[in-house]
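Pasting as-is:
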Amino acid sequence: MCCDSKRRFLLLYATQKGQAKAIAEEISQQAGAHGLEADMHCISEMDKYNLETERDPVVIVISTTGTGEPPDTARKFVKKIQDTTLPPDHFAHLQYGLLGLGDSEYMFFCNGGKTVDRRLQELGAQHFYGTGLADDCVGLELVVDPWIDGLWLALKKALLLQKEKEGMNNVVSAVSSSLSTAPHVVHELNLSSEVQNLRLEDEGARNADVLSQNQDAISPVAPARNSEASLVHSIPPVSQSALNVPALPPEYIEVQFQDTHGENPHLSSLISEGTTFEVPVTKAVQLTREDAIKTALLLELDISDTVFDYQPGDAFCVICPNNPNEVEELLHILGLSEKGDDFVCVKVKEGTKKKGASRPQHIPERSTLKFILTWCLEIRAIPKKAFLRALVECTSDAGEKRRLQELCSRQGASDYTRFIRDSNVCFLDLLHAFPSCKPSLNLLIEHLPKLQARSYSVSSSNLYQPGKLCFVFNIVEFPACLTRPVSRKGVCTGWLAELVAPLLHPSKTTLDTKGESSSTVKISIFPRPNNTFHLPADPSVPFMMVGPGTGISPFIGFLQHRQKLREQHTDWEFGETWLFFGCRHQDRDYLFKQLRCFLGNGTLTHLKVCFSRDSSTAEVAPPKYVQDVIRLYAKDVARVLLKERGYFYICGDKKHMADGVSDAVVDILSMEMEADRLEAMKILAMLREEKRYLQDVWS
């Protein structure tokens, strides 16, 4: 066995929304039970570790954000290792295992992890454990749990090999000089024996863990006949199974109420991404009719008094609060209704068993309780299994306790996916479903993630409207259902809609509608530039845009910018422009009828529209969806992409639109090039690589 001093491994995480950090913390917590110690750091904390001199095994957990980029916390690290002057043996000493997190709904699945993995390999680093790629589309735990299970034996093997390498250098030298193979055989036998001991030790630890959990488990309640499983009710085999539940996460936060008063922190202090700007909303227009299935709003912001700069195609983030009614509801459940305006001090619990514990960066050291629940914590977050495990200890009803254990256990993995993850059950829903669960305030701070700012595409051009920034969004609706007792609106879209209600004007169909009001409504924003989703640098290059519904948003900015360039540079050559737009009903949700103005003045060369829910009396039914319309112009698509080396932009829903558009483009390339589908897919991949087939999509 390895000596105790050599049980350390370096654990790095790169997170955008907290998933990778939570998984790294789970690894760190489990390490102790296997006799190992994780030296855990955010990958951005490059002053606390040094891969150039690191000799112990390294474990990396990294997510993916945007259109396949590493998370913000990994940008400096990635830039550093992508230095082209680094030699191919720069990390030849390094042993690592990598777990990538992603969502196969998006084109560049786990690309953040793949980018780091590929570059480390190019620089000579070696895997001591196979790379894991976890898919949030089907459930991260399907890969994460078995990957962590296998990690411990791999780590111990790596540490043992390292010990042998360091401790046997003299023996190896002697063996080499004498050309004797006998000591080599002895070494391999010893190593094999020790690895076998490690395997037996790990299996014994796992079996003991299962036994202790079985003894502690609540006795299953016999299910009613013909009953169906639900969020609060299980059926065999889960209801009759002994359960493997996660280890109870150690508490590490202490919350102290204070009698003093003061002011809450400024919202800008909650944001680590850069400079924030508080800007007035100067116009609000409802773009859809009252009887439209979705309600779309356009907001105009005045940024003239700021240094906020953007290009058409960029995105920006809105800092939004939780719904005040939901905050009050949560305070009531916690029994703290009278203390919402009291100041609290949040600090690390003295004597906590959590290694490296620190106050979460998004939680102020001192503020009112209501401020934390309103601006800091994502109370709509889908609870992770570690949170469910902690909630078990706060639940008094035996049946509810057992069900929470099932939902966080391996045996209940499919129930967790079906009734919590896929049903979008949030923390509040869970508290309604399990009324005897009364968590402490510190558990919420420990387990609920940071309330994320919401990202929106810019729908304007600073050249066309100096000092203005416009954006468009649908008000997201979550209808009531079995697992959600009340209907809810999206956290940010619902808040914005309520905020700008006084600005909304009765006339709701065009961009030119005046919706000004004397009242000043302000929101806080910060930029999130897009590195690639921009107009071609050469204005003579043709491009095609596909943007049904609110996916048209960035293309309004594109066309405004192009129109202004045409006015300012009459001697320039401009390539043709195509726009494919679709919505349900022409008279209810045709968001921007001013598109015909762009068509009339020549800014837009071709406008192709479709309406999926409108009936038609034509002999040949018109196409319903943008992907169907695109197929009608196959020769033009092929010409623009292949012959004229143009650009193709897609914005909108990925699953129900962008994938269909990609399939249509592949079919077009296959048909027009007289090539098989595989060859056409390779061409499309090449276009993506050249940044000429660009997507800004969401699921």
